[in-house]
């Protein structure tokens, strides 16, 4: 059975050909890609319920998106304020790392130091997120950057942190 996630909100119409501005939700990055199948929720009484991304253009406040079946300003206005769902299977494999709600409670281990504890909070920043980890070293703040990540799955994150980072953040 497929699982779905809300990945974006339709902020406003943008253009006479049905383009809309979509913004990521829940701390996700911009995830909309051409060819991606999406579902509009709540659905409109008239108009498409399932759409496909035709094109995207990243902008300062989200993505300008063309969707199949949304071909004019009137149709775009009808879906403003709604959300876009995608199949989890169609989303990037590292989605867990962008989902603050899913990260809280996960166990984190370092390749050298071993158990660091569990993520207790995720602080979103302009450059990267910072994970607050509570464990045997007390409260440790770790930048969530790909260079430190070794492996991530549903219940454990393995990192290779630079020497001194844990001690410096305490």
Please characterize this protein's 3D structure.
The chain is mainly beta. It folds into 2 domains: 4-92, RimM (Elongation Factor Tu (Ef-tu), domain 3, Beta Barrel), CATH 2.40.30; 98-169, SH3 type barrels (Roll), CATH 2.30.30. It is built from 3 helices and 12 strands. It has helices at 73-79, 100-103, 165-169; strands spanning 4-13, 20-24, 37-41, 50-59, 62-67, 83-87, 107-110, 114-123, 130-135, 138-143, 149-152, 156-159. Strand 4 (50-59) and strand 5 (62-67) form a beta hairpin. It is elongated, with a radius of gyration of 19 Å.
- CATH topology value of the largest domain: Elongation Factor Tu (Ef-tu), domain 3
Number of helices: 3
**pLDDT below 50 for ≥5 consecutive residues: which ranges?**
none
What's the CATH architecture name of the largest domain? Answer: Beta Barrel
Read across the widest sheet, the strand sequence of neighbours is 1-2-5-4-3-6
